[in-house]
Amino acid sequence: MPEEWRRSVLVPIFKNKGDMQSCSNYRGIKLMSHTMKVWERVVEARLRKVVEICEHQYGFMPRKSTTDAIFALRILMEKYRDGQRDLHCVFVDLEKAYDRVPREELWYCMRKSGVAEKYVRVVQDMYERSRTVVRCAVGQTEEFNVEVGLHQGSALSPFLFAIVMDQLSEEVRQESPWTMMFADDIVICSESREQVEENLERWRFALERRGMKVSRSKTEYMCVNEREGSGTVRLQGGEVKKVQEFKYLGSTVQSNGECGKEVKKRVQAGWNGWRKVSGVLCDQKISARIKGKVYRTVVRAAMLYGLETVSLRKRQEDAEGC
């Protein structure tokens, strides 16, 4: 493989939340050779023909999207609310998921998934002697080797990560069937607090023995349709934060099963988008065709994201003017 393909530039991008002075609130995106990305697409197409990912994984899978995962969670919550039964959900957060994947673990998972050895060697060659520099506001660092993790910004990395997660969770899924994954976003559901706590511990053990790490501070617990105090979920002696609402894949889900807060946030997102591009939309010199494209891309997309999964009561429709 050309040496140029092994070099990359790492640009830290702020996550728009938390302290801007903390490095943990930045996501590193690698700028790589465009010809390398074309080669990655070719390899990805070959791998998808031979690797079968479990149905629990929604991330980067054909004919699946964030909307499908959000809908599956919402409909499950609605069924339990209508049946007046408790549903316990734990939203698991992994620390630096892509950056922590051990390379040897990646090769092992690829082979276990049935990938031919020649393709394993191709991917190994992509990661061998990979070097990068960090670019920031004051300049660039010296070039250094990268010996762990997947390339952030790579066209192939999402599917490689799906392969790793599929193999790491294979044993856990048999004991914890009510689980949904969207890449590294994991939701564990159960009818009892004790069971969801037990399943959470299984996931923690399976992930951390292979080099991944569950974030104790960002993993959260929510009880849907809670009728009595259900207590809290514990993880290795510490309490998991209990919440009444959670932002799952960009859509707010509430413990009471309602969708009112999500609708209000979508309306606000639409107005925020409008304010950003109002100069374009109100400019008489710009054609209606261009204005329509800008509106559909910035305003309508933000306003309607995930709303096909939302069910409103009549009073909510009247209040929001739907």
UniProtKB/TrEMBL annotation:
Transmembrane segments: none annotated. One of its GO terms (molecular function) is RNA-DNA hybrid ribonuclease activity. Belongs to the beta type-B retroviral polymerase family. HERV class-II K(HML-2) pol subfamily. InterPro entries: DNA/RNA_pol_sf, Rev_trsase/Diguanyl_cyclase, RT_dom. The lineage of its organism: Eukaryota, Metazoa, Chordata, Craniata, Vertebrata. PROSITE patterns: RT_POL. Pfam families: RVT_1 (PF00078). Its EC number is 3.1.26.4. Residues 1-253 form the Reverse transcriptase domain. This is ribonuclease H.
